[in-house]
Amino acid sequence: MDAIDLTPKQIVERLDNYIIGQKNAKRSVAIALRNRSRRLKLSEDMRDEVAPKNILMIGPTGVGKTEIARRLAKLCGAPFIKVEATKYSEIGYVGRDVESMIRDLMAVGFKMVKSEMEDQMRGQAKEKVEERLLDLLLPGSGDKAAAPNGGGILGSIFGRKIVQQKDENGEVILLPDQSQDAQNDAPKNAAASQDMKETREKFRQMLREGKLESREVELTVTTGPKAASGIGIFSGGNMDDIESAMQSIQQMMAGNKKKQKTVTISEARNILTEEILDNMLDADKCAEIAKERVEQSGIVFIDEIDKIAVHGESHGGQSVSREGVQRDILPIVEGSHVNTRYGVVDTKHILFIAAGAFSFSKPSDLIPELQGRFPLRVELDSLHKEDFKRILLEPKNALVKQYKALLETEGVNVEFGDDAIDRMTTIAEDVNAKAENIGARRLHTIMEKVLEEISFEADEHKGQTISIDAAYVDEKLKDISSSEDLSRYIL
Fold it and tell me: pTM value?
């Protein structure tokens, strides 16, 4: 089932597999996603009037804002990109071009559509790849090369072997051999052609059965980076696009360099598949579909937006830079036309999800125009002991499952007792309360400290089962958790 057709409940259920708690944030994201597909079902006039309801997530670090975005990227069937607002202000007043987020989103959309189109053509390309591989294994065994009576067009016309002769001016010409030998050779050539054909079919069968994967062949490959698509080569008008365009021009002037390379059949299959798919792909059609998809269902996640909020009465250069970034982002969120190498993209119906901890600022510190463009506000809850316990055990990618799987590769079986889990979550909550609250990320540090010795000496414990209880956790963390000053730096 395509993610874009999932109901809000189904979206929340899938997010629950990886993210503990944060019910309100999940619901808001699920509704926003569902509204994307609802809008596409409206009449054209009404569809154009329905603007996306952008979301602002507010909550401390480590509570799941970025994880929701990351999981959404995998779940969502629409072009998706995550950017950090700080990258647009990190170089004084200039920063990176804000419009680059839309160009990056368009590149993601193009890659997505290209991959889908290649998957559709892969079956057709498979037959061509097979023929090319057989040509490499049996040079001269193709239909043209194996044709009787000399092969080629002239051989087909004259039905005889072709010989070279000189005319009265000394020029070399091709003529059918009139000798009796040529006529006698015809049955031999036909028999040889039949033998070659049978051999080719035997090799075809072996190829399909995977018996020739390790055999080496010589393949002509194109060296150097592939030239970028020429679609809208100078359309961007920015340094990224200009640099890309200059590289494309250099590659065109230099031409394609080819060289012989010895590879296995397995490697040759991959190389030939990519080459054939590139030739079959219609880049213009691919760009057209990607542009439509980005405009109608694209999603941009802007993280760390609190870092560009201007708080207090500061009027220094840094605050000017931050406010300038906000004003640059504003037209993109409101709806504008951005030049990309694939064409002009309208951002009016792209969904924007912004997130920030807002520890030293608040949403009202953003400029009013930008605040108004994020009408949905969702506050994510801080995590506590019970949340940490669920994070360690319940998600599909739970930390306990990860560490057990890692150590099992060394033949070590690690068992976590309930008291050990309880003790680690208590320490995580205490350290977050006393030092900086970094949410669930604290669990990563604690787990590393607890398992440090086992991980280091794993090869010596091969075949053993190691049980971890509360006493073991206290032993590994006693010096750290007991000292507030140490925990501030180490945990």
Answer: 0.73
